[in-house]
Specification:
Number of strands: 21
Helix content: 25-40%
Radius of gyration: 25 Å
CATH superfamily of the largest domain: FAD/NAD(P)-binding domain
Shape: globular
Number of domains: 3
Strand content: 15-25%
Structural class: alpha/beta
CATH class of the largest domain: Alpha Beta
CATH topology of the largest domain: FAD/NAD(P)-binding domain
CATH architecture of the largest domain: 3-Layer(bba) Sandwich
Number of helices: 16
Length: about 450
Amino acid sequence: MNTIKTDVCVIGAGSGGLTVASGAVQMGAKVVLIEAGKMGGDCLNYGCVPSKTLIHAGRAGMNYAEAMADVQRAITTIAPHDSQERFEKLGCTVIRDTARFEDEDTIIAGDTRIGARRIVIATGSSPMVPPIDGIDSVPYLTNETLFAQRETPEHLIIIGGGPIGIEMAFAHRSFGCEVTVIDGDQALSKEDPDAAKIVLDRLRAEGVTLMEGAKVEAVSAENGVTVQTSKGPVTGSHLLVAAGRKPNLDKLDLDKGNVPRTKTGVDVDGSLRSVSNKKVYAIGDAAGGMQFTHLAGYHGGVIIRSMLFGIPAKAKTAHIPRVTYGSPELAQIGLTEAEARKEHGDKLTVIREDLKSNDRAVTAGITEGFIKLMVHKGRPVGVTLVAPNAGDLIAPWALAMANNMKLSAMSNAVFPYPTLAEINKRAAGSYFSPKLFDSALVKTAVGLVQRWLP
């Protein structure tokens, strides 16, 4: 068996693992990068890139086979940036095999033993398939198999009304598929109810059947695929399971590395270090918590400071945005209104501006949506945006909240007219308007100044 000594051993070549590997090796550390599957991980091959390409293709009017070919084009175009060849050129030792712990600071991958000063678990997550009666008898799809499809589904049944399920419902409806979404609770249940309602109402208006509060009881291959629910049976041609994700940790032999886990991921502290083995870090989906590609990349940056420079660094979540790419898009950063009221009580100010007050939205005829701004002591603590391209529109708020800016920074900005982005400035200005225009003190001061000005 070959033996390698390294500064950093990264397990997983998805967004987080690649961030750590590229940053560490370019700063002079010895890096071993291990990946058993495809370079680029879930996001490139089965997640963000293919799903957003499919959504765009549907809106662009492609047929289903053309759209799936376009998905592969997008993956192929981006793949070189995440490739084994690129990382080997950077100076990483790349091993394409399954990794497992041998002891607290040793990893076995194939016929190689890696002794490492620091180990990073960046193994991501996989689709969670609930233990539904009959599920193994049905050729169901997940995000890992969906994009290999070439034949247009006649009737796609989706189990799960979270972001993935809702996005794929919009996408497939745009190709003319009949679509039914089944959720045991409420669809988009983690989102602001006002914002979710706009997205879900649009979904229904486009012809998607949304069954909420419908518990899935069994599935069978009867007449294609039949899903038995607490609200009755649904029969379709294809079944997509989008019921959540689970961290990829089972093959790592974590107990041999003295690395405990919880139900959601590796048990880590605020600096993303294992609570019992300080040589081990976990990032992204493997660390539990939010499951976003951009969060994994952020985690990578956090632990590089700690691993390479010994600088204490903690991961935060208040400034991490999320987006459901529906029609319109729903973007959220920080606290929702309900969460903010619970945390800040009567010291919270909530500002809402509807998209119909935005001139660009009026000119384009896209006035369905709004921004909801939660403010505490002059600083934004949460923003909800539902609008076309809401994922782009929320970017200034990500900047503001990451840097703890006051709301005045947004109100002082000058945005080009007419743009949808002006709704951000309008919301910030609405926070200050009552303080200026409804203040007796301000009016008195202005009166005195006008009296004395020459």
